[in-house]
Amino acid sequence: MKLPEEYDEQPKMSLTVVRMIIGVTLFISAILVLILLMNSENIKKRVEEPPKQPADAVQSVTDGEPSDEFAQGTLTPDDFDFWDLYPEETEEPEQEESVKKEEVSDPATDGRHTLLVTADGKEEWVLISPYLPKNEYDYTKLVCQSELMKYFEDGRQISYVGADISKYHDYVDFVKLKKAGVNFVMLRVGARGYGTGQLMLDENFLDNIKRASDAGLEIGLYFFSQAVSKEEAIEEANLVLENIGDYAITYPIAFDMEFIVGDTARIEALTREEKTTIARTFMDTIANAGYMPMLYGNKEWLIRYVDLSKLTSYDIWLSQPGDIPDYPYKFTMWQYSNTASIDGIAGYANLNISFIDYSEK
Which of 26-30, 269-273, 290-294, 327-331 is least confident? Predict the structure, then answer.
């Protein structure tokens, strides 16, 4: 046994190992201390130096120094603009379907409606029929000279000036009227009483037609109707034909049916279809006698009170006083004024423009 030798060697080996461990430990400790010192220095700098604001951040400044709020570190993330770089997505409220439809179909701008002003002053947008022939006049070619409306194409006048005359104009000097620039007259032959239904010849008709013819004016006629049946319409047309005599009627014979302002007319009970049938009956009777028939009316009457789709074979005499008519459908004669002043007629005159020279037809 060598117990003493083995005992002597063991302490020597343990001392060496211990020294190595101590050396390594000191080395590692030194590194850790160095790291801690470096981190401590960085932390100290961050605490001592205030954070830099973005260039466009809003900062309260008094005498060049940051505000107390900023210095005391009370700012929140909401105080920095860069939080707004990515705004929250918000859904736009959907436009109601009814609003969209209203914008799309605005009757004032959609080109498919026309404004109708009723006799009592109410306004209403009505749909323009795509099946009725439209007028194609270029109103920039209309020129009003001394209250006489004229239409030009390529610098040449292609229209004709007219005046419609009844007993309400008293005595008319047709010679002076022609010299004033009138080319044709539309003379009222007669009327049916809106209450009694009695047929009446215009008191001045026979004198008017003679003197208008002597003055060399082109002549057309019209009858104020209050017929409530086809039979009465034929009676009215025959009254016109019987009083023409040998005079040359070169312009149309017009059917004029209207309501009575401030009173009740006998035609008010008629339906739209019945008024249309009566008008057509009168004009067919005139056409069968070899004359040119015509339908007279204002915009409301023509659009609302008769069915134009059944009257497309007849020319239209539109009554719409004003500078420019807004009637959308085809018409050949336009009563543009009932307050005009012209030599030959005492008081107000009803003036018209014809886009057709009916004397050549």
Answer: 26-30
Distance CA 301, CA 311 (A): 13
Contact partners, residue 308, CB within 8 Å, separation at least 6: 129, 132, 302, 329
Contact 328, 320 (CB under 8 A): no
The reply to whether the predicted model has a pTM over 0.85 is no
Can you list the alpha helix ranges (DSSP code H) found in 116-173?
Answer: none
CATH class of 132-360: alpha beta
Contacts of 125 (CB under 8 A, 6+ apart): 107, 108, 113, 114, 115, 116
pLDDT-derived band at 279 (thresholds 50, 70, 90) equals very high
Q: How far is CA 132 from CA 32, 59, 310, 320, 329, in A?
A: 100, 72, 10, 19, 7
List, as one string, the DSSP characters of 22-89. HHHHHHHHHHHHHHHHHHHHHHHHHHHSPPPPPTT----EETTEE-HHHHTT---GGGSGGGGSSPPP
Residues 304 and 125: their CA atoms lie apart, in Å, by 12
Q: What gap in Å lies between CA 359 and CA 348, rounded to an integer?
A: 26
Angle between helices 272-288 and 230-242 (to 10 degrees): 30
255 neighbors 267 (Cβ within 8 angstroms): no
Whether 302 shows a pLDDT value over 80: the answer reads: yes
What is the rounded distance in angstroms from the CA atom of residue 153 to the CA atom of residue 287?
31
- Please give the residue that has the higher pLDDT: either 78 or 281: 281
Tokens of 65: 């120094």
106, 185, 210, 265 from 251: Cα distances, Å = 41, 8, 16, 29
Enter the DSSP assignment of 361: -
Instruction: Measure the CA–CA gap between 212 and 164, rounded to whole angstroms.
Output: 12
d(CA 235, CA 334): 27
